[in-house]
Specification:
Oligomer: single chain
Shape: globular
Bound molecules: 5'-deoxyadenosine, iron/sulfur cluster
Number of helices: 16
Helix content: 25-40%
Strand order of the largest sheet: 2-1-3-4-5-6
Length: 471
């Protein structure tokens, strides 16, 4: 029998944030080493992994309905003599652990985000018939495995093939802030920063594979701190400057940030580093000081607005994005109006908004709750305000010229799509040979989420790692 005929198949479904997207790729990498090939649908898979999100109740409940559906698929496979292993990974796994096995006996394996380095062994154990729960914290070890996987050549890493010109790179994980509504400090653990050398190695490898835009990821990415090669402690600003020196890395972004960690060096990077794209996701969650205090955000409305002002001074025209929660316990109509006002004052380019969802084990879950209809009504008003702000931002781009990194074909032939510096997608009429290049585009129109444009002239590419390798 050939090795390929023996290959098992894994299907990974990802829920939630970009860190989960990144982790799913790393899980696929780890499993590829153990002989698992990725497949797009669960039907033919020997191993199905749900990489889950616990941030709001709805996200967590989705997982249980999906397990319900997969239970039938598993039973059908078993009737045909095929052993399908069902695993739950991610933050629901971390938060609920053994509870998942009790609630959903068809699950064979529960693995939290800090245990992915052991995935091949855990899967083997589960396939041998044990019910396996791995939810201990060992982030340093996890980063060690990321480093090892990241140093393997691309052809060994099937998940990588999809990420061509823009890629994520995890630099930080976990959170020490303990906002009163949030499960992240419990599911992802304490803040841990990845070392500089490992980050530079991964970025250099991505550049060598043709990646031109790197987004640094972390639950609290701007809290990243590590020893620099110069013997000083580096913050994210310093790291961005260093990453921009890597040939081929033309564009940098980072997400997501806490307002209190926007230090002067990072703000200066927005002024002095052309590779740092003019986009910043800086959630405030609420506009009233009373609610900000109850949320344990550790800053006031005025502090946030002062930070925003500094950023706008450093990089005028930057696209600001936010997150908001409505109906946090104790939120009055007056508090909510403060949130609406902050949306107008900041002039967001985009924002996510959510009804407060009580999460087991977090302090706010035990407080007196705002009635559901009130939350729904406030969310409607907030979303209308956000949509209006977003439309104003989109319209303000029309007539501007911007550099767009084209990443894929559009819906119809002759159309390609890329990202503007402000992160919004830009559609232009052009041939597929432009995919992978950065082009100057004149913005000619704006929809609610996309911009439309026409090519102006090609930007002479900086020498990329690929070109240097070929020379
Ligand atoms: N309920 C509603 N929204 C939440 N978020 C985090 N926890 C909750 C919760 N319990 C939102 C915050 C955060 C985003 C990722 O999700 O706005 O920034
Ligand atoms: Fe959650 Fe607050 Fe940490 Fe963000 S800063 S991950 S909202 S606890």
């Amino acid at each position: 029998m050939t090795a390929s005929a023996e290959k098992r198949k894994v299907h990974i479904r990802t829920y939630g944030c970009q860190m989960n997207v990144y982790d799913s790729e790393r899980m696929a990498d780890a499993l590829a080493e153990a002989g698992y090939a990725p497949v797009d649908s669960p039907e033919s898979a020997d191993l199905i992994l749900l990489n889950t999100c616990h941030i709001r109740e709805k996200a967590a409940e989705k997982v249980y309905s999906e397990i319900g559906r997969l239970r039938h698929l598993k039973a059908r496979a078993a009737a045909q003599g095929r052993n399908v292993t069902l695993g739950v990974a991610g933050c629901v796994a971390q938060a609920e652990g053994e509870e998942i096995m009790r609630r959903a006996p068809s699950v064979d394996l529960v693995v939290g985000p800090q245990s992915y380095q052991r995935l091949p062994d855990l899967v083997a154990e589960a396939r041998a018939g044990g019910a396996v729960v791995a939810t201990d914290f060992a982030v340093a070890e996890k980063f060690g495995v990321l480093d090892r996987l990241a140093s393997r050549p691309q052809h060994d890493r099937p998940a990588e093939a999809a990420r061509r010109y823009a890629a994520f790179l995890t630099v930080q994980e976990g959170c020490d802030k303990f906002c009163a509504f949030c499960v992240v400090p419990y599911t992802r653990g304490a803040e841990v920063s990845r070392p500089v050398a490992a980050i530079l190695a991964e970025a250099t490898r991505l550049a060598a594979e043709g990646v031109r835009e790197v987004t640094l990821l972390g639950q609290n990415v701007n809290a990243w701190r590590a020893d620099g090669p110069d013997g000083r402690v580096w913050g994210l600003g310093r790291l961005l400057f260093r990453l921009a020196e890597i040939p081929g890395i033309d564009r940098l972004r980072y997400t997501t940030s806490h307002p209190n960690d926007m230090d002067d060096e990072l703000i200066a990077a927005h002024r002095d580093l052309p590779a740092l794209m003019p986009y910043l996701h800086l959630p405030v969650q609420a506009g009233s000081d009373r609610i900000l205090a109850a949320m344990n955000r550790r800053h006031r409305r005025a502090d946030y607005l002062r930070t925003i002002e500094k950023i706008l001074t450093a990089r005028p025209g930057i696209a600001l994005a936010g997150d908001f929660i409505v109906g946090f316990p104790g939120e009055t109509e007056a508090d909510f109006l403060d949130t609406l006002r902050i949306v107008d004052e900041v002039g967001y380019a985009s924002a996510f908004s959510f009804k407060y969802s009580p999460r087991p084990g977090t302090p706010a879950a035990a407080m007196e709750q705002v009635p559901e209809p009130v939350k729904a009504e406030r969310l409607g008003r907030l979303q209308a305000a956000i949509a209006a702000a977003q439309a104003r931002f989109q319209a303000s781009r029309v007539g501007m010229e911007a550099e767009v990194l084209f990443e894929r074909s559009g819906r119809h032939e002759g159309q390609i799509v890329g990202r503007s510096p402000w992160l919004s997608p830009v559609q232009v009429e052009a041939g597929p040979e432009k995919i992978g290049s950065i082009q100057r585009v004149t913005i000619t129109g704006a929809g609610p989420n996309s911009l439309f444009g026409a090519l102006s002239q090609a930007v002479p590419n900086r020498p990329t790692a690929l070109a240097e390798a070929a020379a």
